[in-house]
Design brief:
By secondary structure, this protein is an alpha/beta fold. The protein contains 11 helices and 11 strands. Helix 4 crosses helix 5 (85-94).
Length: 256
């Protein structure tokens, strides 16, 4: 519950639209709300600038729908990640206004309410190959929901490095770069050697036999010879985007 919510609540009491007892109940559940299977954090947006994100992985379709309805009632932008087909089908039926992003495996509500604050730099999301797109799109959508200008640069892996060099200006124009790659994960090291910006590397589980479901890319990125590269977990587009958002907001309101 932010200041505007509290002000509106007090006005409702003053105008007699709700009782004092109802107002007390709303304030009591403001920090978090216990649904039995989850304690949803309503104050996450006050601390981190965005409401708690729903991880669909491991939840039933019914649980995801119940959480989405809870947050929907508060009119805040909502992001649900790692949603399977069953969750997407259930949400589509129960909450028709929800936006489905099949490639990113995400669901959003009230995306049109997200505003880009002044002074925000551009985040460039780079993927090595088409197989990395689900992770890349998860990162892009997360960045957009957090209020960042985003640009995409896809399918520019080291197997055809000229594709990257032809887009060199885009690398220079970004404030933060997210590099997503499977196989041996070499793209992050290449990009890190070309720019003086923060580079967040995301290994993906894309690759043949001894890629070990992304472990080879993870180790390759951790062992990068280019300085200034940070590495998140395998397939963690969401985590990379959240970190990029934090970096992008540093110094945003500092007057020169």
């Amino acid at each position: 519950m932010d200041k505007d919510d509290l002000r509106q609540l007090l006005n409702y009491v003053k105008e007699g639209k709700i009782s004092i007892e109802e107002a007390i109940k709303k304030v009591q559940i403001a920090p978090f709300e216990d649904l039995g299977f989850v304690k949803f954090d309503h104050h996450r947006h006050l601390r981190q600038g965005f409401p708690e994100v729903i991880l669909g992985l491991g939840k039933t379709p019914e649980q995801v729908v119940e959480i989405l309805k809870l947050v929907k009632d508060r009119n805040h932008p909502v992001l649900a990640t790692r949603c399977n087909d069953e969750i997407i089908e259930k949400v589509s039926k129960e909450i028709p206004e929800a936006e489905i992003h099949e490639l990113a495996r995400c669901i959003t509500l009230y995306r049109d309410k997200v505003k880009i604050p002044e002074g925000m730099g551009k985040v460039l999301v780079i993927s090595a190959g088409t197989g990395d797109l689900p992770v890349a799109e998860e990162a892009v959508l997360t960045l957009q929901m957090l209020g960042n200008p985003v640009e995409k640069l896809y399918d520019v892996g080291v197997a055809g490095i000229h594709r990257l060099f032809e887009n060199y200006e885009k690398l220079l124009d970004a404030r933060v770069l997210i590099v997503i790659a499977g196989m041996e994960g070499a793209l992050a090291s290449v990009v890190g050697g070309l720019v003086d910006k923060p580079v967040i590397a995301v290994p993906t589980s894309v690759g043949y036999g001894v890629s070990f479901n992304g472990l080879a890319a993870l180790l390759g990125m951790l062992n990068s010879c280019s300085a200034g590269i940070g590495v998140v977990n395998i397939d963690n587009g969401f985590g990379a985007a959240f970190l990029a958002n934090s970096i992008n907001r540093i110094g945003r309101n500092v007057k020169k």
